[in-house]
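Weekly modeling sync, notes
Attendees: S.R. (lead), two postdocs, one rotation student

Agenda item 3: backlog of single-chain predictions. S.R. asked that every request posted to the team notebook include the full sequence so nobody has to chase files. The rotation student volunteered to paste the first one in as an example of the format we agreed on. Action items at the bottom.

Example entry:
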Amino acid sequence: MNTMTILLSSFILSVTGLAIFIWSLRNRLFEASPAAARTIFSEGEIGRSDDPAATPRQAAAQAAHDAAPPLTEDEARRLNEELQARVEADRSSSLVTFLFLACAVVWLLVATAAGLLSSIKLHEPDLLVNQAWLTFGRMRTIHLNAVAYGWAPMAALGLAMWLLPRLLKTPLVGARYAIAGAMVWNAGLIAGLGCIAVGLSDGMEWLEIPWQVDILFVVGGALVGLPLVYTLQARTVRHLYVSVWYMGAALFWFPTLFLVGNLPAMHFGVQQAAMNWWFGHNVLGLFYTPMALACVYYFLPKIIGRPIQSYNLSLVGFWSLAFFYGQVGGHHLIGGPVPGWLITLSIVQSVMMIVPVLAFSINQHLTMKGHFKRLWDSPTLRFIVLGGMMYTLSSVQGSIEALRSVNTVAHFTHFTVAHAHLGLYGFFTLVMFGAVYFVMPRVMDWEWPYPNLISLHFWLVVVGFGIYFVGLSIGGWLQGLAMLDAAKPFMDSVNVTIPWLKSRSVGGAIMALGHLVFAIHFVLMATRRGVARDGAALLNEPLRATPVATAA
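Predicted structure, as returned to the notebook:
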């Protein structure tokens, strides 16, 4: 019965998506033409960079260094009018965006501290064992929930609050509801982490917070959703750019997933495990992933001043993600007492995920072709392009890992943990970092004071995560091989991981230092301390503001 509930929920998601697809085509909201890719640009913007200027004056500093032909006086006037309109849209969402991003930074630090302590405990089990709430089981769970319901949604929703007014070309409507929703959501998260710390848990990964506390998430999420719906209704554009569809779908999918996953007294035994991985995997693929892809499809073209190479590929990526991802989580139950057809369906859908991944990867590479030199100076582009590459790697790895021959070794090992971090950190978190570096100057009307701190943050998290991922992947694979060897005692599979778990802690410590640098820089900017910069904070050869060039 419960398995049928999950399948019915997936079916409803797919059918609803198909209905929306047909409706959007009938209303010409999903135009699949090259012109649709240009809707995020104003006349005269194509060929000109936009990174990360908060005002027309700062945008002019970038334009002076671009290779685009000079603007006529009429084009310059229209462009400046459009930039002024954007500034007004940004101001309408600045307070609520700052609130969400500030909360995200706080939860990032909380999650980092809990995660690093949990990592160290894997090879130093006697560390801090006198307090129950500091034990590995509770601390690791606090880390997961602080990421899943703190850093990740706060960052994604804050960016959505900022992006939608720009994409819909209208001020944000009902920001006060989002502010109230953020307060309720964070109250729920504090209560939920408190419950976990004292030993109260529902006992399912990703769903540990008691369902009674989850009611606060439902109320807070509903309040946050109201401004997004109101702003969509007040839009002044007819065509909805692909980023809007990714964000809109994510904001529809997540409440459905959360409601089904947290229904009390509905899921038991094996069915509970099936629901658990259906929820856990779909939150990653149907909420975090589309929110991050929406950011990539907006920020990447805007920064390099070029529309995405193929708008049709972006649509293929969106709809294939919607249709293929629904049952991917079942491959975590290979070998378990679940129906064989359910496992096979999950493996097939996991492999089919190569379709949206290739669509995105080809689109990103062709769009960036001839513009890779911008990675030298653009902080946002560095994070976003690398994050997009990590999306390709994590998704292809996930498709391969779903195969029974590979899953036999990787399942129940640290290899799976490394894979999960490749998606949620290597892809999602890096994209969020890049987007924050783009958005905050417009939110605060103030430039990042120390570009060197941005560069330091980038290299710390990249090097740290590289050590983390490689070490944990090797250790996890060796662990899986040892567990499959019947001649070896179980403790051999534990001992073989110790050196690699230590490398995980080293990498995690370097990442934690990067997060601390990011948080300090965020606070300096929020309080307008440090160097007052005139123009974009690029990583090399900072620009000075200059007038927009015009043609006679």
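Discussion: group reviewed the output briefly. Residues 52-56, 542-552 have pLDDT under 50 and may be disordered.
Action items: rotation student to repeat for the remaining queue; S.R. to check formatting next week.
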